[in-house]
Amino acid sequence: MQWKSLCVVVGVVGMGWGEAVASERAANEARACAPGAVYKVKDILPPDAPFPSPWRPVPDWLTNVQGTLYFAADLYMGHSVLWRSDGSATGTVPVKDFLATGQGYRDLSWLSAVGSQLFFALNDPPSGTELWVSDGTGEGTRLVRDIEPGTASSELSSLGPAGSYLTFVRTTVPQRALELWRSDGTAEGTYRLMDFGSQTSLEMSSLPVAGNRLFILSDEVNGTRLWRTDGTVEGTLLVKRLDAGRVDIPRGVAMMSAMGLGVFSFGDGSITEIWRTDGTSAGTVRVDSLGGRVRLLGIVGSHAYVASLAPDARHVRLSRLLLAGGGKEVVATLPNRYASEPGSEPYVQASEVAGGNLYLSVAIGAPSGPAPREVALWVTDGTPQGTLELNRGLNTSDETFPELFDTGRGTLVFSGSDDTTGQVVWVTDGTLEGTGPVADFSSGAGSWPEDFTRVGDTIFFRAGSDVRADALWAMPATVACDLQARPPR
User: Fold this and answer.
1) Average of pLDDT values for 130-150?
2) What is the pTM of this model?
Protein backbone atom coordinates (compact mmCIF):
# COMPACT_ATOMS: atom_id res chain seq x y z
CA MET A 1 0.00 0.00 0.00
CA GLN A 2 1.15 3.54 -0.72
CA TRP A 3 -0.07 6.84 0.69
CA LYS A 4 1.50 10.04 -0.52
CA SER A 5 1.75 13.40 1.22
CA LEU A 6 -1.64 15.00 1.64
CA CYS A 7 -2.73 18.43 0.45
CA VAL A 8 -6.38 19.07 1.27
CA VAL A 9 -8.34 21.40 -0.94
CA VAL A 10 -11.02 24.03 -0.30
CA GLY A 11 -14.00 25.48 -2.22
CA VAL A 12 -17.01 27.64 -3.28
CA VAL A 13 -20.67 27.67 -2.42
CA GLY A 14 -23.14 30.25 -3.67
CA MET A 15 -21.98 33.76 -4.54
CA GLY A 16 -24.47 35.28 -2.12
CA TRP A 17 -22.72 33.80 0.91
CA GLY A 18 -19.26 34.60 -0.46
CA GLU A 19 -20.16 38.26 -1.11
CA ALA A 20 -21.72 38.66 2.32
CA VAL A 21 -18.66 37.22 4.02
CA ALA A 22 -16.35 39.43 1.96
CA SER A 23 -18.37 42.51 2.91
CA GLU A 24 -18.28 41.67 6.60
CA ARG A 25 -14.56 40.86 6.38
CA ALA A 26 -13.84 44.22 4.74
CA ALA A 27 -15.72 46.01 7.51
CA ASN A 28 -13.81 43.99 10.08
CA GLU A 29 -10.47 45.05 8.61
CA ALA A 30 -11.35 48.66 9.43
CA ARG A 31 -11.07 47.79 13.12
CA ALA A 32 -8.03 47.51 15.32
CA CYS A 33 -7.43 46.16 18.79
CA ALA A 34 -6.05 48.13 21.72
CA PRO A 35 -2.47 49.35 21.23
CA GLY A 36 0.23 48.63 23.79
CA ALA A 37 -0.64 44.98 24.35
CA VAL A 38 2.50 43.81 22.56
CA TYR A 39 5.93 44.73 23.89
CA LYS A 40 9.50 43.91 23.00
CA VAL A 41 11.24 41.88 25.69
CA LYS A 42 14.77 42.05 24.32
CA ASP A 43 16.94 42.09 21.21
CA ILE A 44 18.85 38.80 21.29
CA LEU A 45 21.24 39.02 18.36
CA PRO A 46 24.64 40.57 19.26
CA PRO A 47 25.59 43.64 17.16
CA ASP A 48 28.62 41.89 15.64
CA ALA A 49 26.87 38.54 14.98
CA PRO A 50 26.08 37.31 11.48
CA PHE A 51 22.43 37.45 10.50
CA PRO A 52 20.80 34.10 11.28
CA SER A 53 19.60 31.70 8.63
CA PRO A 54 15.81 31.62 8.10
CA TRP A 55 16.05 27.92 8.89
CA ARG A 56 17.78 28.66 12.23
CA PRO A 57 16.10 31.85 13.42
CA VAL A 58 17.02 33.68 16.64
CA PRO A 59 15.39 33.28 19.12
CA ASP A 60 14.29 29.71 18.42
CA TRP A 61 12.82 26.65 20.16
CA LEU A 62 10.80 28.74 22.66
CA THR A 63 9.94 26.35 25.52
CA ASN A 64 8.04 26.66 28.80
CA VAL A 65 9.77 24.99 31.76
CA GLN A 66 7.53 25.30 34.82
CA GLY A 67 6.80 28.99 34.29
CA THR A 68 10.12 30.10 32.82
CA LEU A 69 10.76 30.61 29.12
CA TYR A 70 13.87 29.04 27.58
CA PHE A 71 15.06 29.48 24.02
CA ALA A 72 18.07 28.93 21.76
CA ALA A 73 20.33 31.17 19.69
CA ASP A 74 22.33 29.06 17.26
CA LEU A 75 24.52 31.09 14.88
CA TYR A 76 26.69 29.97 11.99
CA MET A 77 30.39 30.25 12.94
CA GLY A 78 29.28 32.01 16.11
CA HIS A 79 28.36 31.37 19.71
CA SER A 80 25.37 29.19 20.50
CA VAL A 81 23.61 30.38 23.62
CA LEU A 82 20.91 28.86 25.80
CA TRP A 83 18.71 31.66 27.24
CA ARG A 84 15.95 32.00 29.82
CA SER A 85 13.44 34.79 30.38
CA ASP A 86 10.91 35.92 32.96
CA GLY A 87 9.34 38.35 30.48
CA SER A 88 11.44 41.38 31.40
CA ALA A 89 14.51 42.76 29.65
CA THR A 90 16.67 42.42 32.78
CA GLY A 91 15.32 38.93 33.44
CA THR A 92 16.19 37.71 29.94
CA VAL A 93 19.69 36.33 30.38
CA PRO A 94 22.04 33.68 28.98
CA VAL A 95 22.09 30.38 30.84
CA LYS A 96 25.17 29.05 29.09
CA ASP A 97 27.32 30.25 26.20
CA PHE A 98 28.74 27.55 23.94
CA LEU A 99 31.69 29.13 22.17
CA ALA A 100 32.24 28.89 18.43
CA THR A 101 34.33 25.98 17.16
CA GLY A 102 34.93 26.97 13.54
CA GLN A 103 32.63 26.70 10.57
CA GLY A 104 29.15 25.31 10.96
CA TYR A 105 26.57 25.26 13.76
CA ARG A 106 26.53 23.86 17.28
CA ASP A 107 23.08 22.41 16.49
CA LEU A 108 21.46 23.66 19.72
CA SER A 109 17.96 22.29 19.18
CA TRP A 110 15.13 19.99 20.27
CA LEU A 111 14.45 21.88 23.55
CA SER A 112 12.03 19.77 25.60
CA ALA A 113 10.77 20.23 29.17
CA VAL A 114 10.30 17.36 31.61
CA GLY A 115 9.36 18.62 35.05
CA SER A 116 11.93 21.20 36.13
CA GLN A 117 14.57 19.95 33.67
CA LEU A 118 15.22 21.22 30.15
CA PHE A 119 16.65 18.67 27.72
CA PHE A 120 18.20 19.58 24.39
CA ALA A 121 20.60 18.36 21.69
CA LEU A 122 23.99 20.04 21.19
CA ASN A 123 27.08 19.46 19.10
CA ASP A 124 30.12 19.70 21.39
CA PRO A 125 33.48 18.77 19.80
CA PRO A 126 34.66 16.22 22.40
CA SER A 127 31.44 14.21 22.18
CA GLY A 128 29.69 15.23 18.93
CA THR A 129 25.94 15.85 18.94
CA GLU A 130 24.46 14.33 22.08
CA LEU A 131 21.78 14.83 24.73
CA TRP A 132 22.21 17.68 27.26
CA VAL A 133 20.19 18.84 30.26
CA SER A 134 19.88 22.10 32.20
CA ASP A 135 18.41 23.16 35.53
CA GLY A 136 18.51 26.82 34.48
CA THR A 137 22.03 27.55 35.72
CA GLY A 138 25.33 27.50 33.87
CA GLU A 139 26.79 25.01 36.33
CA GLY A 140 23.75 22.78 36.01
CA THR A 141 23.87 22.70 32.19
CA ARG A 142 25.77 19.56 31.19
CA LEU A 143 26.11 16.59 28.89
CA VAL A 144 23.81 13.76 29.95
CA ARG A 145 25.57 10.89 28.22
CA ASP A 146 27.91 10.33 25.27
CA ILE A 147 25.67 7.74 23.61
CA GLU A 148 27.84 7.41 20.51
CA PRO A 149 31.29 7.31 22.17
CA GLY A 150 33.99 9.74 21.12
CA THR A 151 33.63 12.53 18.60
CA ALA A 152 30.97 10.72 16.54
CA SER A 153 27.45 12.15 16.85
CA SER A 154 24.16 10.58 17.83
CA GLU A 155 21.21 11.28 15.54
CA LEU A 156 18.46 12.27 17.97
CA SER A 157 14.88 13.27 17.25
CA SER A 158 11.32 13.32 18.59
CA LEU A 159 12.27 14.43 22.12
CA GLY A 160 9.29 14.57 24.47
CA PRO A 161 8.05 13.65 27.95
CA ALA A 162 6.49 10.35 28.99
CA GLY A 163 5.53 10.55 32.63
CA SER A 164 8.58 11.80 34.55
CA TYR A 165 11.07 10.79 31.85
CA LEU A 166 12.30 12.18 28.57
CA THR A 167 11.84 9.80 25.66
CA PHE A 168 13.51 10.21 22.28
CA VAL A 169 14.39 8.38 19.09
CA ARG A 170 17.98 7.57 18.14
CA THR A 171 18.84 6.56 14.58
CA THR A 172 22.02 4.50 14.43
CA VAL A 173 24.75 5.18 11.87
CA PRO A 174 25.35 3.62 9.42
CA GLN A 175 22.73 0.90 10.00
CA ARG A 176 19.84 3.43 10.18
CA ALA A 177 18.11 1.38 12.86
CA LEU A 178 15.44 3.11 14.97
CA GLU A 179 15.90 2.93 18.74
CA LEU A 180 13.62 4.28 21.47
CA TRP A 181 15.49 5.77 24.47
CA ARG A 182 14.64 7.36 27.81
CA SER A 183 16.45 9.67 30.22
CA ASP A 184 15.98 11.01 33.73
CA GLY A 185 18.84 13.49 33.28
CA THR A 186 21.59 11.18 34.55
CA ALA A 187 24.01 9.00 32.57
CA GLU A 188 22.86 5.88 34.45
CA GLY A 189 19.20 6.69 33.83
CA THR A 190 19.67 7.21 30.10
CA TYR A 191 19.32 3.97 28.17
CA ARG A 192 17.63 2.20 25.28
CA LEU A 193 14.08 0.95 25.73
CA MET A 194 13.59 -0.78 22.38
CA ASP A 195 15.43 -1.50 19.12
CA PHE A 196 12.98 -1.47 16.20
CA GLY A 197 15.53 -2.33 13.50
CA SER A 198 16.54 -0.70 10.25
CA GLN A 199 13.45 -1.53 8.16
CA THR A 200 11.00 0.38 10.33
CA SER A 201 9.63 3.87 9.68
CA LEU A 202 8.31 6.10 12.43
CA GLU A 203 5.75 8.88 12.24
CA MET A 204 7.55 11.55 14.28
CA SER A 205 4.37 13.02 15.72
CA SER A 206 3.62 11.44 19.08
CA LEU A 207 0.42 11.41 21.06
CA PRO A 208 0.32 12.10 24.84
CA VAL A 209 -2.40 9.99 26.45
CA ALA A 210 -2.67 9.16 30.16
CA GLY A 211 1.02 9.74 30.96
CA ASN A 212 2.18 7.75 27.94
CA ARG A 213 3.57 8.69 24.53
CA LEU A 214 1.88 6.86 21.67
CA PHE A 215 3.50 6.49 18.27
CA ILE A 216 2.99 4.55 15.04
CA LEU A 217 5.59 2.23 13.51
CA SER A 218 5.37 0.64 10.08
CA ASP A 219 7.39 -1.99 8.20
CA GLU A 220 6.85 -4.62 5.51
CA VAL A 221 6.99 -7.60 7.86
CA ASN A 222 4.97 -6.47 10.88
CA GLY A 223 2.60 -4.02 9.19
CA THR A 224 1.42 -0.84 10.90
CA ARG A 225 1.37 -0.84 14.69
CA LEU A 226 0.49 1.52 17.54
CA TRP A 227 3.04 1.50 20.39
CA ARG A 228 3.14 3.25 23.74
CA THR A 229 5.78 4.04 26.35
CA ASP A 230 5.80 5.49 29.85
CA GLY A 231 9.59 5.75 29.85
CA THR A 232 10.22 2.31 31.34
CA VAL A 233 11.18 -1.00 29.72
CA GLU A 234 8.14 -2.81 31.10
CA GLY A 235 5.87 0.09 30.11
CA THR A 236 7.03 0.10 26.47
CA LEU A 237 4.77 -2.21 24.55
CA LEU A 238 2.72 -2.85 21.45
CA VAL A 239 -0.82 -1.54 21.83
CA LYS A 240 -2.39 -2.86 18.65
CA ARG A 241 -1.70 -3.89 15.08
CA LEU A 242 -3.65 -1.45 12.90
CA ASP A 243 -2.99 -2.85 9.43
CA ALA A 244 -1.25 -5.88 7.94
CA GLY A 245 0.63 -3.79 5.39
CA ARG A 246 3.02 -0.90 5.50
CA VAL A 247 1.33 2.49 5.61
CA ASP A 248 2.96 5.85 5.03
CA ILE A 249 1.40 8.43 7.32
CA PRO A 250 0.45 11.52 5.28
CA ARG A 251 2.52 14.58 6.06
CA GLY A 252 0.55 17.21 7.94
CA VAL A 253 -1.90 14.74 9.50
CA ALA A 254 -0.97 14.91 13.17
CA MET A 255 -2.07 12.60 15.91
CA MET A 256 -4.33 14.61 18.22
CA SER A 257 -5.48 14.26 21.80
CA ALA A 258 -8.18 15.77 23.97
CA MET A 259 -9.74 14.77 27.29
CA GLY A 260 -7.55 11.68 27.65
CA LEU A 261 -8.44 10.38 24.21
CA GLY A 262 -6.22 10.24 21.13
CA VAL A 263 -7.36 10.39 17.52
CA PHE A 264 -5.24 9.63 14.47
CA SER A 265 -5.63 8.84 10.77
CA PHE A 266 -3.73 6.91 8.14
CA GLY A 267 -4.20 5.94 4.52
CA ASP A 268 -4.97 2.41 3.41
CA GLY A 269 -4.86 2.53 -0.38
CA SER A 270 -7.76 4.72 -1.51
CA ILE A 271 -9.29 4.73 1.98
CA THR A 272 -8.50 6.96 4.96
CA GLU A 273 -9.10 5.38 8.35
CA ILE A 274 -9.88 7.47 11.45
CA TRP A 275 -9.07 5.83 14.79
CA ARG A 276 -9.47 6.72 18.44
CA THR A 277 -7.45 5.34 21.36
CA ASP A 278 -7.16 5.56 25.13
CA GLY A 279 -3.76 3.83 25.04
CA THR A 280 -5.11 0.31 25.49
CA SER A 281 -5.75 -2.42 22.94
CA ALA A 282 -9.46 -2.67 23.76
CA GLY A 283 -9.80 1.10 23.69
CA THR A 284 -8.15 1.47 20.28
CA VAL A 285 -10.91 1.26 17.68
CA ARG A 286 -11.58 2.46 14.16
CA VAL A 287 -14.12 5.29 14.12
CA ASP A 288 -14.72 5.32 10.37
CA SER A 289 -13.26 4.53 6.94
CA LEU A 290 -13.62 7.33 4.41
CA GLY A 291 -13.10 7.21 0.67
CA GLY A 292 -10.38 9.34 -0.88
CA ARG A 293 -7.83 11.57 0.76
CA VAL A 294 -9.08 12.95 4.02
CA ARG A 295 -7.22 15.20 6.45
CA LEU A 296 -7.79 15.07 10.19
CA LEU A 297 -8.18 18.65 11.44
CA GLY A 298 -8.97 18.51 15.15
CA ILE A 299 -11.19 17.33 17.99
CA VAL A 300 -14.02 19.53 19.27
CA GLY A 301 -16.19 18.02 21.98
CA SER A 302 -17.42 14.58 20.90
CA HIS A 303 -16.50 15.07 17.23
CA ALA A 304 -13.40 14.72 15.07
CA TYR A 305 -13.31 17.17 12.17
CA VAL A 306 -11.94 16.25 8.75
CA ALA A 307 -11.49 17.93 5.36
CA SER A 308 -11.89 16.18 2.01
CA LEU A 309 -11.99 17.08 -1.68
CA ALA A 310 -15.36 17.89 -3.18
CA PRO A 311 -16.15 16.07 -6.45
CA ASP A 312 -15.21 19.10 -8.56
CA ALA A 313 -11.65 19.10 -7.10
CA ARG A 314 -11.92 22.87 -6.62
CA HIS A 315 -13.44 22.84 -3.15
CA VAL A 316 -13.00 21.23 0.23
CA ARG A 317 -15.79 19.82 2.26
CA LEU A 318 -15.61 20.10 6.04
CA SER A 319 -17.22 17.19 7.87
CA ARG A 320 -17.33 15.88 11.41
CA LEU A 321 -17.45 12.36 12.82
CA LEU A 322 -18.85 11.22 16.14
CA LEU A 323 -15.93 9.72 18.08
CA ALA A 324 -18.32 7.10 19.41
CA GLY A 325 -19.04 6.06 15.82
CA GLY A 326 -22.21 6.42 13.83
CA GLY A 327 -21.19 8.11 10.61
CA LYS A 328 -20.31 11.61 9.51
CA GLU A 329 -22.17 14.80 8.69
CA VAL A 330 -21.11 17.55 6.29
CA VAL A 331 -20.57 20.91 8.00
CA ALA A 332 -19.87 23.17 5.01
CA THR A 333 -18.18 23.49 1.63
CA LEU A 334 -15.84 26.46 1.64
CA PRO A 335 -16.01 29.14 -1.07
CA ASN A 336 -13.11 29.53 -3.48
CA ARG A 337 -13.37 32.79 -5.40
CA TYR A 338 -10.68 31.62 -7.85
CA ALA A 339 -12.35 28.29 -8.64
CA SER A 340 -12.86 29.11 -12.34
CA GLU A 341 -9.22 30.13 -12.87
CA PRO A 342 -6.32 27.83 -13.81
CA GLY A 343 -4.15 26.48 -11.01
CA SER A 344 -6.60 27.48 -8.29
CA GLU A 345 -6.46 24.23 -6.32
CA PRO A 346 -6.91 25.13 -2.65
CA TYR A 347 -5.56 23.19 0.33
CA VAL A 348 -5.56 23.26 4.11
CA GLN A 349 -2.17 24.24 5.54
CA ALA A 350 -2.76 24.10 9.30
CA SER A 351 -5.55 23.74 11.84
CA GLU A 352 -6.05 24.47 15.54
CA VAL A 353 -8.82 24.19 18.13
CA ALA A 354 -9.36 27.15 20.46
CA GLY A 355 -12.33 28.22 22.56
CA GLY A 356 -14.52 25.41 21.26
CA ASN A 357 -13.99 26.44 17.61
CA LEU A 358 -11.94 24.84 14.86
CA TYR A 359 -9.68 27.21 12.90
CA LEU A 360 -7.89 26.39 9.65
CA SER A 361 -5.66 28.21 7.20
CA VAL A 362 -6.69 27.65 3.60
CA ALA A 363 -4.32 28.37 0.69
CA ILE A 364 -5.35 28.88 -2.93
CA GLY A 365 -2.85 27.64 -5.50
CA ALA A 366 -1.33 29.81 -8.21
CA PRO A 367 -0.51 28.78 -11.81
CA SER A 368 3.10 29.90 -11.36
CA GLY A 369 3.44 28.11 -7.99
CA PRO A 370 4.66 26.85 -5.64
CA ALA A 371 3.68 29.87 -3.50
CA PRO A 372 -0.11 30.22 -3.12
CA ARG A 373 -1.89 33.31 -4.42
CA GLU A 374 -3.85 33.72 -1.18
CA VAL A 375 -4.11 32.20 2.30
CA ALA A 376 -7.21 32.80 4.45
CA LEU A 377 -8.17 31.99 8.03
CA TRP A 378 -11.48 30.18 8.47
CA VAL A 379 -13.42 29.17 11.57
CA THR A 380 -16.23 26.71 12.17
CA ASP A 381 -18.35 25.94 15.20
CA GLY A 382 -19.77 22.86 13.50
CA THR A 383 -22.64 24.63 11.73
CA PRO A 384 -22.93 26.13 8.20
CA GLN A 385 -23.80 29.57 9.57
CA GLY A 386 -20.90 29.40 12.02
CA THR A 387 -18.35 28.68 9.27
CA LEU A 388 -16.74 32.03 8.36
CA GLU A 389 -13.71 33.55 6.68
CA LEU A 390 -12.00 35.82 9.24
CA ASN A 391 -8.87 37.08 7.46
CA ARG A 392 -7.57 36.87 3.91
CA GLY A 393 -4.04 38.08 4.54
CA LEU A 394 -2.08 35.16 6.00
CA ASN A 395 1.50 34.52 4.91
CA THR A 396 1.75 33.27 1.31
CA SER A 397 5.28 31.89 1.57
CA ASP A 398 5.92 28.54 -0.10
CA GLU A 399 8.45 27.62 2.61
CA THR A 400 6.47 27.95 5.85
CA PHE A 401 2.81 27.65 6.83
CA PRO A 402 1.01 30.22 9.00
CA GLU A 403 1.03 29.42 12.71
CA LEU A 404 -2.31 29.23 14.53
CA PHE A 405 -1.98 29.39 18.31
CA ASP A 406 -4.53 28.66 21.05
CA THR A 407 -4.15 31.27 23.81
CA GLY A 408 -5.91 29.05 26.33
CA ARG A 409 -8.26 31.97 27.00
CA GLY A 410 -10.89 31.18 24.39
CA THR A 411 -9.12 32.98 21.56
CA LEU A 412 -6.65 32.29 18.78
CA VAL A 413 -3.64 34.41 17.79
CA PHE A 414 -2.04 34.30 14.35
CA SER A 415 0.11 36.30 11.97
CA GLY A 416 -2.08 38.19 9.53
CA SER A 417 -2.28 41.33 7.44
CA ASP A 418 -4.70 43.62 5.63
CA ASP A 419 -4.34 46.53 3.24
CA THR A 420 -2.71 48.80 5.87
CA THR A 421 -0.11 46.56 7.52
CA GLY A 422 2.33 43.78 6.77
CA GLN A 423 2.33 40.56 8.79
CA VAL A 424 1.55 41.39 12.44
CA VAL A 425 -0.14 39.67 15.40
CA TRP A 426 -3.90 39.27 15.09
CA VAL A 427 -6.38 37.84 17.59
CA THR A 428 -9.83 36.33 17.09
CA ASP A 429 -12.62 34.92 19.22
CA GLY A 430 -14.18 33.24 16.21
CA THR A 431 -16.40 36.15 15.22
CA LEU A 432 -15.83 38.85 12.61
CA GLU A 433 -16.46 41.50 15.27
CA GLY A 434 -13.85 39.99 17.59
CA THR A 435 -11.10 39.64 14.98
CA GLY A 436 -8.42 42.27 14.48
CA PRO A 437 -4.72 43.18 14.69
CA VAL A 438 -3.39 43.37 18.22
CA ALA A 439 -0.82 46.01 17.37
CA ASP A 440 1.25 47.18 14.43
CA PHE A 441 4.72 47.66 15.90
CA SER A 442 6.47 47.48 12.54
CA SER A 443 5.78 50.91 10.98
CA GLY A 444 3.57 49.25 8.40
CA ALA A 445 6.25 46.94 7.00
CA GLY A 446 5.22 43.83 8.93
CA SER A 447 7.02 42.07 11.77
CA TRP A 448 6.38 38.43 10.77
CA PRO A 449 5.59 37.01 14.24
CA GLU A 450 6.01 33.27 14.78
CA ASP A 451 6.86 30.54 17.32
CA PHE A 452 4.10 31.55 19.78
CA THR A 453 4.64 29.96 23.21
CA ARG A 454 2.55 30.48 26.34
CA VAL A 455 4.15 30.75 29.78
CA GLY A 456 1.57 31.41 32.49
CA ASP A 457 -0.49 34.39 31.35
CA THR A 458 2.11 35.61 28.86
CA ILE A 459 2.51 34.64 25.21
CA PHE A 460 6.06 34.97 23.89
CA PHE A 461 7.01 34.98 20.22
CA ARG A 462 9.73 35.88 17.75
CA ALA A 463 9.25 38.92 15.48
CA GLY A 464 11.15 41.60 13.63
CA SER A 465 12.98 44.31 15.55
CA ASP A 466 13.62 47.96 14.73
CA VAL A 467 17.22 47.39 15.86
CA ARG A 468 18.51 44.32 14.02
CA ALA A 469 16.94 41.10 12.79
CA ASP A 470 14.39 39.47 15.14
CA ALA A 471 13.76 39.99 18.84
CA LEU A 472 11.86 38.30 21.67
CA TRP A 473 8.37 39.82 22.06
CA ALA A 474 5.48 39.18 24.43
CA MET A 475 1.83 39.99 25.07
CA PRO A 476 -0.83 38.93 27.61
CA ALA A 477 -2.68 35.69 26.89
CA THR A 478 -5.91 37.57 27.64
CA VAL A 479 -5.45 39.93 24.68
CA ALA A 480 -8.70 40.59 22.83
CA CYS A 481 -10.02 42.84 20.10
CA ASP A 482 -11.77 45.91 21.55
CA LEU A 483 -13.06 47.15 18.17
CA GLN A 484 -11.40 50.53 18.34
CA ALA A 485 -11.64 52.36 15.05
CA ARG A 486 -8.46 52.87 13.10
CA PRO A 487 -7.29 56.37 12.18
CA PRO A 488 -8.41 57.54 8.71
CA ARG A 489 -6.27 56.13 5.88
Assistant:
1) 96
2) 0.89
